[in-house]
Write a structure and sequence with these properties.
binds hypoxanthine, Aldehyde Oxidoreductase, domain 3, 19 helices, binds ligand MTE, binds dioxothiomolybdenum(VI) ion, eight-stranded mixed β-sheet, Aldehyde Oxidoreductase, domain 4, 3 domains, six-stranded mixed β-sheet, alpha+beta, 767 residues, 28% helix
């Protein structure tokens, strides 16, 4: 594929966005990640010894040669765990170190602690483990046949599908498959742990969930949570892969620190990380779709098999979100969707941007594409006929409100001249034998909130120091998504002071406790709202000082550009002077606020409720060119109308759209996870696992914000943006498929993602 000249059209910004506050140190290579932390003298290094058998009884493990190696300090196994050998978050089904049996290739069995990483790695090669091999399950279908599940299946029901199918003009049934996806965060998993006095520990972890690390470490070390402090400065990417799966490494290092009373560093190298950690869940699905004569979807029935891997991890919550998004942006009056979390002998699969939602959306988009090809109409005809309207009911009982999906669709259609593009593509295809183009439209409707209602809360701790500078602590973890920049904006705007006065502190469990992970795209909403509340309380106190001194109504007092104003008149009091007065009057300059999302609820016994604070909407038009001799493809353009609400930082939000889009295109087109039948990961290096690079991004990406009134449930009306854009990438699959259809009329629609060049080629020449 030739190098393309990529243009990312700058979207018009009314006000210049605050630049990401990390960009200066990022660019200079000065940003601190776990591996950059200054370690204590004598720090030991750990390497995980893992299983090279996907399912079996551990007959014997001989550590003697490894232990004899000079510089090896200790090898820890399940026998050494001081508390519980259990790290399961939702379901306690996952040992930290294998006990008696192994359930996936790459499962930790022991931890080699040595004076250096190279010694520990050398020791690992000297360990001899013998297994009695047991049958290996690698696919969800095999697991279902054998009755191997994580938990009971879940089902969402609306209306009556059986009655509805009986009255449908068109009914089609089929199958789909979407594969997993490797997170490939640039910073691999890792932690550094220091033992402190009195059996306390400080854990520096690359985690999205500091409280999760603290909670599980306390369980495994057999000590109370208050003895463990977890600190996170930032992550070099998480993408969901560090919501639950940052925990084991931090806990192993903590256990070693506890046993050896020495600081310990454990960082997975890329190969260990690829082999030992879970990925996006593959899904195998069967669907049945029914439409009326006027192409309204009347009934949709699906059975989804989620390949959960060998332990629950977050699979049950992810399966639930798949059901929430199984009808994507469409109103379907009769739905029956069932998901099975299938237990297999793969590393436990986990959260990945979209959290099961993308997998659900792929199925209904596939079903629509199938119907379109059977009926000889455009996919867009069916999509457009079924878009959600105000007050439509989702299968989970929430009533759609402030719906912007038609608005985004119509705006995209108009601004990007969809019909003209479709006609041009048709004309191009008529005149071109071996190069074909395809266009597809991908609407998205994504629910914002943790689907588990009780997780939707956060806190902020704000100190105004006596010189007028401010320290802000929240539960938010910066993983590249720019949340710290948004938090800084909130504090700066609240007090109308300059940026340099505010520092966003590390995320630390002793300053902000009992936090939910930074996930579900809700980090800025939850933590930003808490921060707003804390700033408002402090602001009230500060204004009150002025009101009392000048005997004026507090409503007449305001802060503007570092200065106090009374009745719109600039006073003699500067920001610093005001803080000085507050100190002299012994006014508290610290505030802690708690925010819990109002309104939301969900009843799992009925599978009905109002789980989401709001939905994010948008529409993408994807155009591709396929080389029909080679099966290769390029993306000519992706044009998006996205509902940001009132974006508080368009620069950062556009970055999220672009990154999410490319990650979605990667999942749908080129990233191919592959396991051998014996459970060994074959795509175990970047030479065998292809992620999008600069040559695979679309030649043109244009993003236009949709004009909307915004939504008060979003912080400053600025809607969550982290996950939704990944799903625009689903359009890439169908754009390529449409190009294949243009080349090969005999092509039988197959919905098996990713659409790699090999599959494109097979489709082009299918007879
Ligand atoms: N963007 C970057 N650069 N790095 C990341 O790890 N994670 C994504 C998304 N965007 C991620 C990212 C995921 S999975 C989520 S849930 C959200 O960011 C989390 O951050 P937010 O809640 O602040 O949107
Ligand atoms: N999204 C992301 N992470 C989560 C969720 C969710 O809905 N629920 C639990 N963890
Ligand atoms: Mo994101 S998958 O909710 O970490």
């Amino acid at each position: 594929m030739k190098a393309n000249t990529q243009k990312i059209k700058p979207t018009k910004q009314t006000k210049k966005s605050l630049q990401n506050i990390d960009s200066y140190t990022h660019l200079r290579g000065e940003s601190i990640y776990v591996d950059d932390v200054n370690v204590r003298q004598g720090t030991l290094h750990a390497v995980v010894f893992d299983s090279n058998c996907a399912h079996g009884k551990i007959k014997s493990v001989d550590y003697s040669k490894a232990l004899a190696l000079d510089g090896v300090v200790r090898i820890l196994t399940s026998d050494d765990v001081t508390g519980e050998n259990q790290i399961g978050g939702i379901i306690p089904d996952e040992p930290l170190f294998a006990e008696g049996e192994v359930h996936f290739w790459g499962q930790p069995i022991g931890l080699i602690v040595a004076e250096s990483i190279s010694i520990a790695k050398k020791a690992r090669k000297l360990i001899i483990a013998e297994f009695e091999e047991l049958p290996v399950i690698t696919t969800a279908k095999q697991a279902k046949e054998k009755g191997s599940f994580i938990n009971a299946p879940r089902s969402f029901n609306l209306g009556n599908v059986n009655e509805a199918f009986a009255n449908c003009e068109y009914v089609f049934e089929g199958e789909t498959f979407s594969n997993g996806q490797e997170h490939l965060y640039i910073e691999s998993q890792g932690a550094y742990v220091e033992p402190l006095e009195n059996g306390n520990f400080r854990i520096v972890s690359s985690t999205q969930g500091p409280t999760q690390v603290q909670r599980i470490a306390a369980r495994v070390l057999g000590i109370p949570m208050h003895k463990i402090e977890v600190d996170v400065t930032r992550l070099g990417g998480g993408f969901g892969g560090k919501e639950d799966q940052a925990t084991p490494w931090a806990v192993m290092a903590a256990l070693a620190a506890q046993i050896l009373n020495q600081s310990v560093k454990l960082i997975l190298d890329r190969h260990d990380d690829l082999r030992m950690t879970g990925k996006r869940h593959p899904y195998e699905t069967t669907y049945k779709i029914g439409l009326s004569k006027d192409l309204k979807i009347q009934a949709f029935e699906i059975e989804l098999l989620q390949n959960s891997g060998a332990a629950a991890d977050l699979s049950p919550a992810i399966a639930e979100r798949t059901l929430f998004h199984a009808t994507n942006s469409y109103y379907v009056p009769n739905v029956k969707s069932t998901v099975y979390s299938c237990k297999t002998n793969l590393p436990p699969n986990t959260a990945f941007r979209g959290f099961g939602g993308p997998q659900g959306m792929f199925v209904i988009e596939s079903a629509i594409a199938r119907v379109a090809s059977e009926l000889g109409v455009l996919n867009t005809t069916i999509q457009e006929a079924n878009l959600l309207k105000e007050n439509d009911e989702f299968s989970y009982g929430q009533i759609a409100q402030k719906v912007e999906i038609r608005n985004s669709w119509n705006t995209a259609k108009e601004k990007f001249e969809l019909e003209k593009v479709q006609n041009e593509v048709a004309v191009f295809n008529e005149n071109s034998a071996n190069i074909k183009k395809g266009v597809a439209v991908m609407p998205i409707t994504f629910g914002i909130s943790f689907t588990n209602t009780q997780m939707n809360h956060a806190r902020a701790l704000v100190h105004i120091y006596q010189d007028g500078s401010i320290g802000v602590s929240t539960a938010a973890v910066e993983m590249g998504q720019g949340v710290n920049t948004k938090l800084l904006q909130i504090a700066v705007d609240s007090f109308s002071i300059e940026n340099h006065r505010v520092k966003i502190e590390s995320t630390n469990t002793t300053r902000v406790a009992n936090t939910s992970p930074s996930a579900a795209s809700a980090t800025a909403d939850l933590n930003g709202k808490a921060l707003l509340m804390a700033c408002d309380s402090l602001l009230f106190r500060l204004k009150n000082i002025v009101a009392e001194e000048y005997k004026v109504d507090i409503k007449t007092v305001s802060l503007r550009d570092e200065w106090v104003y009374i009745n719109d008149q600039k006073s003699t009091i500067s920001w610093e002077h005001l803080i000085f007065k507050a100190m002299a009057l012994r006014v508290a300059l610290t505030e802690n606020a708690h925010y819990a999302t109002p309104v939301i609820h969900f009843d799992k016994t009925k599978e009905k409720g109002h789980p989401f604070a709001y939905h994010v909407y948008g529409t993408a038009i994807v155009t591709t060119t396929v080389d029909c001799l080679r099966g290769t493809y390029e993306f000519d353009s992706v044009k998006i109308i996205h509902d940001f609400g009132k974006s508080m930082n368009l620069g950062i939000d556009l970055g999220q759209i672009e990154g999410g889009l490319i990650q979605g295109i990667g999942w749908m087109t080129m990233e191919e996870i592959s396991y051998a039948a014996n459970g060994k990961l074959l795509s175990n290096a970047l030479s065998t696992y292809k992620v999008p690079d600069v040559y695979s991004v679309p030649k043109e990406v244009e993003v236009i914000p949709l004009e909307t009134p915004g939504n008060d449930m979003a912080v400053l009306k600025s809607k969550a943006v982290g996950e939704p854009p990944l799903m625009y990438g689903i359009g890439a699959y169908f754009a390529i498929q449409n190009a294949i259809r243009a080349f090969n009329p005999k092509y039988k629609m197959r919905f098996h993602a990713p659409m790699t060049p090999e599959k494109v080629l097979m489709g082009l020449y299918q007879k």
